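Researcher: Please predict.
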Amino acid sequence: MKIAALLLALLAATGLRGQQRCATFHMRDTTEAESPSDSPPLAITLRETLTIPVVVHIVWRTPSENISDAQVESQIEVLNRDFRALNVEAAAVPSLFSPVLADMELEFCLVAITRTQTETSGISALYQGGKRRVCYSELGGRDAIDPGHYLNIWVAGRADGACGDAPLPGQNTPVPAAEDGVFVRPECFGTLGTAMPPYQLGRTTTHEIGHWLNLRHLWGDGLEDPLCQTDDLVADTPEQAYSYQGECPTHPSLSCGSADMFMNFLNFTDDACMAMFTEGQKARAWAAINTYRPGLLEASCEPVPAREAPKESAVLLLNNPADSWAALQLPEKDIFEIAIFDSAGRLVFIQNRIQSACFHIDTRSFISGIYYIKIRDEGKIHTKKLIIAR
């Protein structure tokens, strides 16, 4: 019966990947479950309220991914309520759990918003040469700004169905400093604009910052823990089996012999059902700051001067990989010559004196494979790789 229950739980979790709260990226380097002795010491003397400066990198391919400043600001407002226990949902925490409801004594200030247009669809969860592409300007993303002193958040599209992810600090193989931050899809970020139910209240970012501060899911590692064998290494969060992915349950909901704290920010419940951190999570998060992120203790909320993203080319290739069509976005008023070659170097298309901001390429006559587009602009040559996939 236990094996059957485990299989059913795994099948259920697989069926939810189309819109899942959190990817499992932050666990990828862990070879063994962390033991309490591996954790940073929890006996940390808390400072006065700490304000963490935030840089938000908007890396967009479609106009809807280029979210507004107002949407970014709405997310910062959510963080400042959630991490100070000022969110309206905190008042409805069941009396069983209210004694451990914590004001995390963390606040957030927005110091910069960067905007980068990319040619790459779903860039947030893509890797090249072992690097997470969204974190590198040279790979179509945007470089982090001083991750030792700022929380960098990348808001970009992803195709794996997850709303976001973030690395846990102190893993066996830590992520590079250039990739240290939080990653959130535009549809799960903030409370305005593109934010969509059931993740339209900004709780994905609250959840992922929890990971960034070394907080685990309440059921421990993996998708779920129906056999109650792992937990989150925090004493005042009851052991639980289920993630409550896509649910808004009622109290009491039971597993592992007790009522579950499903309203904790480190669960997968809908945004409207998230309400609290605990005192134990607060101690663990502050220990992580002192141990792994000490630069935050001396960080400043002074605005970071805007820096332009490097512009390797003013030409963008759209809808790549392509099936029946692709398009080139070109600078206006310039005159171009466009030639397309197959992987063997054979010319398959050429057109001169193109003067258009957007040039449509009909690829229905091209066989599947890799092609190279040469765009000549008054002596300058831009090269784009086009992939035809059917």
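Model: Residues 1-18, 25-45 have pLDDT under 50 and may be disordered.
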